[in-house]
Amino acid sequence: MLGTERNVMETFNILLPESQRWRELWLVFGLPEISQTLKVISLPMLETLEMVLNYGVGDPASLERPNLQTCPSLRFFSIISVPLDWSSSLPVPGGLRHLAIEMVKHGPTPSQMLALLSSTVQLEALLMNYVGPPPGHDWGSAEEQKPVIMPYLRKIRLIRMDPIFVKQLISHIHAESCSVIALQCIAPSSYRDIKLLQSKLARIAASLERIFVIIDDHESQGIVHISSFDTTDQTRLFAASQSTETPGFSLTFLTGPHSIRIEAAMDFLAYTQIPISMTLQCSLRANRWALRNIDWDRLPSLCELTIAPHVGIFSIMYPLCAPRGPRKALRWVCPKLTVLRFHKLGFLHPAFPWYLRLRWGPPESNDDDDDENDGMKRDPSRPTQLTLCEVPLQNISKFLSPEEMKHFAAEWKDSTPIAAVDSRSPGQMEGQKLLPAGEDAVAEVSNP
User: 146: number of CA atoms within 13 Å, CB side?
Assistant: First the structure.
């Protein structure tokens, strides 16, 4: 690694005679003498080049553009914070396999980026992370740009990028071999943009067994994660897509300070037949309120729902458990919902059993003249039972009989937070185990 450390010029001059044999170079910019020298020498065996700008040393305006044509064997090229002049083409070796551009204040326009990619047809992975707009914030238009065919591109990761850039770039890249896509941007604002994303992901989605959705918030920003990778850890969401070779995608939509674009993000999932596992963990009031506007009718493949205790459980449960349609032909939204989790919920509200009975209640009467039954138990499409229900088991028996527990769910799991579980006696802590519904389960968790 060469940089602005003490005696770096001395070290550089010692190594320079061996430059014909260099294979990897991590260069911290700050000394123009080094960048000027590297511009004129040949590095025929260099395979990896990472350039990082040290803002504490040197003048960024004096940096020389790298002459990558002197590196014919270059396969991995990374730019971090280095300001480059994108108005003219950046010559890169045609054999480049991995390209990363990160933390650049003024990046290329979509047209300039497409021109760069058109010269790297063997590229396998592209990463752009927090690359700002060109000077003047003029993205330009790539509508007249010819599509760039990239037969070997397998991974695309566009993180914290402007949606205009994302839209124009991915609409002009044709990569039939691409199997991993990670995007982070503002939620699509038009039906056309949503269809574009869906078309780019269609081949990947065709082989998926499940889609994982997390609706969360960070500070004042609402966030919707849509991913084929099974993780609820936001810090690992992109790491999963970066390191794995398993086909899949990871989308992170920023939905604004009041989550007004949550519904737009949900448009991406509307009426998909791929099973959906969803986690709701918004803590801000504005974002929790926005969850009330989700049209659950458009998520027929929702099969697993996890709700954090601060979300407002009953504002979510009511539309899920309220029947739709005429009185004698009622139907329920999300007919495949069979796993219900209230994560880290320590107290079971007395109204919760009412929702269970409303949607999964035992048949009461088949008499058409029974006004009391009100026709709400006759829908043949109504899900008959939960396969798993996670609630505070310590007081579940106060509201449900053993027979009802057995009917409502095949298995019950304790949602009580670990701290609360540890404060109980060993007998009570048995409720932390996964238990089959029935008398034995109730007896175990209800013992004082």
Answer: 7
